[in-house]
Every structure is written in C-alpha cells, then in structure tokens.
Amino acid sequence: TVSMITSIRQSISTAVFFVVSFSGDSYTSVLTKAGVSFENIYCTQILAPREEGGLDLVDEWEERVPEAERTKYSYLGYFVGAFVNSVMSHISTSTAITSSTFLSTLYSGKVFEVGGVGVGPFSDVCEDLSDCCSQGLSKVWMTKGDDTLKQFSTIEDFNFTTPSCGVDYSV
Q1: Which among 45, 70, 25 is positioned nearest to 137, based on CA atoms?
Q2: How large is the greatest C-alpha to C-alpha distance in the chain, in angstroms?
Q3: Chain segment 82-91, per-residue pLDDT in tens
Q4: By the 8 A CB rule, do 21 and 137 touch?
Q5: Closest to 79 (Cα-Cα) out of 57, 64, 98, 97
Q6: 121: cis peptide before it, omega within 30°?
Q7: Under 8 Å CB-to-CB from 57, ≥6 apart: which residues?
Q8: What pLDDT shows up at residue 15?
Q9: CB 75 within 8 A of CB 45
Q10: CA 161 to CA 50: how far, in whole Å?
Q11: How many angstroms separate the CA atoms of 41 and 125, rounded?
Q12: Alpha helix locations (H) across 12-55?
C-alpha cells in the first residue's frame, strides 16, 4: 500500500483517497449530501470497476448474473464464489473437502486465477515480515471523482501491479 500511494503521489499532488471495493457507489450519495466536491478524490479498487468491460471477471459476472440482480453485492459475491471455486479446484477429487483441506490448499503458496486476475499467494507461517506473503489481488484499479457527473470513473492509463512476492502473475 505504501509503495502504491508513493507512486500515485508522484503523479497526483492534490489527492484525497478512499480505499473501497467499488466505484464509490455508496460514497457518491454521501459526498453529494455533504456538499463535498468530487474533484481530487481518488478511489483505489480491489476489484475491477464493474463498468470495466473486457475483463474476464466483469464479463463472466455479466454473463452469469441476470441484469436485475447486478448490484455491488452480487459482484463482490460473484468474486468470492469464483475465488472459493478456484481454491477448491486445486484440491484432489480423491480428497475430502474439509475446512482443513481448504485452508491447507489456500496457504499452499499457489496463485489462484479468478476471472483473469491472480490472487495470492497466501502464507500462514512467517519467520519475519520479509518472508511473509499474504497477497490479495495482483492488481488494483484507480478511479477519479468527477464533480460534474457526481460519479467515479476509471483512470485508464493508471497501472499499479502489487508486489508479487516472487510470483510471476503472467502465467
């Protein structure tokens, strides 16, 4: 997080940050009611903004979830379900799926592919912080507030891939 914020501050000198999971869905009404300008408010996203077409995760969610049920909660739920499914797909079919086998698979040092984005590796044992790696998504997205439209839009040319813990996410 520190390296990401340092990187952003180098190119954006007057920024206020929210760290959220969605493109400001619930914050837009709060900001509007409070009379706060959207200018210089940037939101880091741990999931691709839903309007980000062409990304496997978004495309799969839109394909599988009926339009009337597409909410920020169904999007997050879809991601969690896809993540759990990815972890479980690494468990042998001859092995009983228990909380123990699930957790040992989760903490096996693997990177789990979820809709075209790497998640992990996760570690539950570390000697010190330098060898401890519990990595979430391999990428974050950045959105910027638009005071005229009262919404957040993806910054297209922003690219920050989180430190990889020695993992090649391109595989």
Answers
A1: 45
A2: 58
A3: 999 999 999 9
A4: no
A5: 57
A6: yes
A7: 47, 48, 79, 82, 114, 115, 116, 117
A8: 61
A9: no
A10: 19
A11: 37
A12: 25-34
